[in-house]
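Sorry, I am new here, but would you mind making up a protein's amino acid sequence and the tokens describing how it folds?
***
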Amino acid sequence: MKNFLLSDIPLLETGPAPSLKTLPRQFRLSVWNFQKEKQPLWRQDFLSLCERSDLFLAQETRLDAACTQAVEQSGLHWHAAISFLSPWGKYPTGIAAGCRAPAQEIAFDASVREPFLTIPKMAMRLIYPLQNTQLLVVNVHAVNFTGISSFKQHLEKTARLVESFPGPVIIAGDFNTWNQNRHAELLHMAQLLGLQEVLFRPDLRTRYLRRTVDYIFIRGLEAASSCVADIDSSDHRPLSATLRLP
């Protein structure tokens, strides 16, 4: 614990005020692991994606001065669940969700931790107004450097965030499914929750050890279109999908 400071402020709110009262019946989603904004073209690609997005789920978000400035220009209102403060600038680092509509409820689970550094791995639950209903969104950055038991525990805690919610659901993010056992547990969770995986053709998603790690799952929604941006401003390629109520 010498290199990382845990945040005592787990939830932050930032960015411009919501521009919509409710998400439209058809809306655009982006999902991207920022890699803590290390790459030089990150800002340009981020703002371009935000321009085309109504809802944005981000992982490995480090809210330093440059990122905060980009968020203010994004056109989206953001909530962040903070895992830790970066060791050098002590910048809040974690996962974040940006939306053109206001979040009605926000919760998170940080009970599963990476070994050695004991950094909490986050799953954040948000409820947004969607035309004539509510949309439940869960943003996930799954535990990584552990065995299958801790990974399964993280998925179980993520599933509890959905519980018996009756409306449309999105669960998306970086699931760190870099082996067959992890992938099988993820698909098992999706099956138990009645989730459908959004598919990509061509499938340009980032792979580690030849396995896909980033996913979008939906329930009570249809995917009108989906794509993966072939860009290099992170070690993960961003996913985008146009989703709609059936």
Notes: The mean pLDDT is 94. The chain has one domain: 11-244.
